Give the backbone structure.
Amino acid sequence: MNPSTHHAALSLPLFTRPQGCLAVERFMAQHSYPDFTPRAVLFDMDGVLFDSMPNHARSWARVCTDFGLAMTPEEAYMHEGRTGEATIQILAQRYLHRPATAQEIERIYEAKCRLFNACPEAPKMEGATEVLKRVAEAGLTIAVVTGSGQKSLLDRLEQNYPGVFAPELIVSSKDVRHGKPHPEPYLLGLERVGLEPWEAIVVENAPLGVEAAVAAGIFTIAVNTGPLPESALLEPGAHLLFPSMTALAQALTPPQP
Ligand code: MG
């Protein structure tokens, strides 16, 4: 790869550093792309823009257990990114040995949303504002690709990050037939920003989200903002891993002259 052609990538200091260069080399070796010229960053929402996963995990565990589908908060982290329906179906097969009915799915998902909305409001993820600022400064387009359909959080994107996310550049569970780990959400994200896979970057915190982004052929940065081991994000193919959004923000910050 010829670095002089990577103007957009070079506007992100991350890719001028050895760690970033190596990751791009690995990414290019996996694909037969003409180039790597990122023009957009597709952000996952829960666990990336909002520190909302503890509330989601607790709500899922409580509601599922109430409905006879035992689930621990730890397991909820492994399902993150799936649609609510897909998660409920996995548990129904395991405990009821049959598919859940449409009515059961609706009741469980409604109860989960009610409980989630009763939780203390999830704060913005520490470091997320700085990451978004760096990406915008580098001239890249910002989009959201979330497996969530939680209206309360989708509405908060504009309140908490005013002017950052164009409504047409937010892909939610309502827009897709298949949730993560299927690549459809990220492929739709690419379509919305009008770019090819080698022209975008994904930021994800969930194993299934990383799997979806990698399956869509996009350079994937994992941020490990939850309780999972690093291997849970590296095994599905993350190209870079940071321990937090704050650490990612630092990697995106130009060196001081
Ligand atoms: Mg997430």
Notes: The radius of gyration is 18 Å. Confidence is low (pLDDT under 50) at residues 1-8. The first strand starts at residue 40 and ends at 43.
